[in-house]
Amino acid sequence: MTTSKKLQSFTAPKGVPDYVPPASSEFLAVRDRFTGHAHAAGYEHIELPIFEDTALFARGVGESTDVVSKEMYTFADRGERSVTLRPEGTAGVMRAVIEHGLDRGALPVKLAYSGPFFRYERPQAGRYRQLQQVGVEAIGVDDPALDAEVIALADRCFASVGLTQYRLELTSLGDATCRPAYREKLQEFLFALPLDEETRRRAEINPLRVLDDKRPAVREMTADAPLMLDYLSPETREHFETVTGLLTDLGVAFEINPRMVRGLDYYTKTCFEFVHDGLGAQSGIGGGGRYDGLMSQLGGQDLSGIGFGLGVDRTLLAMQAEGVSASAGRRVDVYGVALGAAAKREMVRLVDQLRAASVSADMSYGDRGLKGAMKGADRAGAQFALVLGDRELEAGEVAVKDLQAHEQTTVALADVVRHLQARLERG
Ligand code: HAM
């Protein structure tokens, strides 16, 4: 007798979520709902590479950001090129727009994307190393009405999956005409504080980040720090006021958060974040903003753009926290139960006909008996079960059980596809 030794099994890499049934249908529902809203607002699909030239992110996202300096999955491919699994989508979209000359056509170029992004972060609830986003970018026109459109679109996405306990935080980060002077003012303020070595270094490289420090002592010291919103140029102030005015017209509630700091360096002017209260520390369910210099930074024309990235994983966690759902929970409408070999043969044909007529259908496989097979119908969330035994087959009929109304009728085999189509249409 041979004894087979069981091999060790595997788990997904640390910090990488799987979405398996039944949770996976919720995942799809959220992702598709978000992209559906984006397409309905005129954003066209763009399919981007999962990895790009490392320099694209270093230059686009910013060398001093945590994302680039600590979190990128970077490796040399077999041709010794340094490539990086995309940590975010905006830099890749911009690369593709420049490469394919989309910015030479009608503006704005409005694009939407979805898929996985990769950041080597310390995993915790809601913070993953493979994260899923739905994003949009509107490129080429610096019109505050576009800022309002993008923000209102994000708000519509979250509301449409049933979320209510989130808020929108908003600020303006100024632009090249006013940010340098503000930066100097802020540094002057920070350098006068008794900061530790590392924080002082941060104040030199990116002083705005110090305002986002969560330590109470630093918070206290920076309570009276100068804020960008008080140093906006007249043009950027007007831009921001137009955005907030339009959001008010659209009935999108927001709070001004002048200390907001985003983790990516390319932002200018409008900057926003959607925050959910039921998620603990990782409360950002989506965010974005305008980026004036990014396209020229990546070798393209000097055009502005604005966009967002919505976190699908965190949206799902927020929905769990609120107890709301976006999927119908039904896998198929019709479930076939065949008893005996001849009935099975007929059922295989019937289920195939239903699918060809766009009625979603599945059936019981293996020899499970009536009770076991009906459990399968329940698990599939089917509205109708078709039960076919020798007796029905001989009579050229099939029993149609309505699993919600607990009613049963007998229908001729030749009519059953039409019969079910009609009943499903009636709802
Ligand atoms: P981001 O704020 O870095 O922006 O990411 C957008 C969203 O992705 C976050 O609000 C969050 O919901 C989700 N997210 C980020 N990191 C993780 C993680 N480790 N685990 C789970 N979810 C995460 C961007 O990526 C910009 N590209 C957005 C943008 C588009 N700005 C302009 N256009």
Automatic annotation (TrEMBL):
It catalyses: tRNA(His) + L-histidine + ATP = L-histidyl-tRNA(His) + AMP + diphosphate + H(+). Belongs to the class-II aminoacyl-tRNA synthetase family. Gene3D superfamilies: Anticodon-binding domain, Bira Bifunctional Protein, Domain 2. GO terms for biological process: histidyl-tRNA aminoacylation. L-histidine binds at E88, G89, T90, R119, Q133, E137, R262, Y266, Y267. Pfam families: HGTP_anticodon (PF03129), tRNA-synt_His (PF13393). Its main location: cytoplasm. SUPFAM superfamilies: Class II aaRS ABD-related, Class II aaRS and biotin synthetases. It is found in: Cytoplasm. GO terms for cellular component: cytoplasm. It is an enzyme of class 6 (ligase). One of its GO terms (molecular function) is ATP binding. Keywords: Aminoacyl-tRNA synthetase, ATP-binding, Cytoplasm, Ligase, Nucleotide-binding, Protein biosynthesis. The keyword Aminoacyl-tRNA synthetase applies. Residues 29-322 form the Aminoacyl-transfer RNA synthetases class-II family profile domain. It comes from the Bacteria. Homodimer. It comes from Corynebacterium canis. PANTHER family: HISTIDINE--TRNA LIGASE, MITOCHONDRIAL-RELATED, HISTIDYL-TRNA SYNTHETASE. Its EC number is 6.1.1.21. This is Histidine--tRNA ligase.
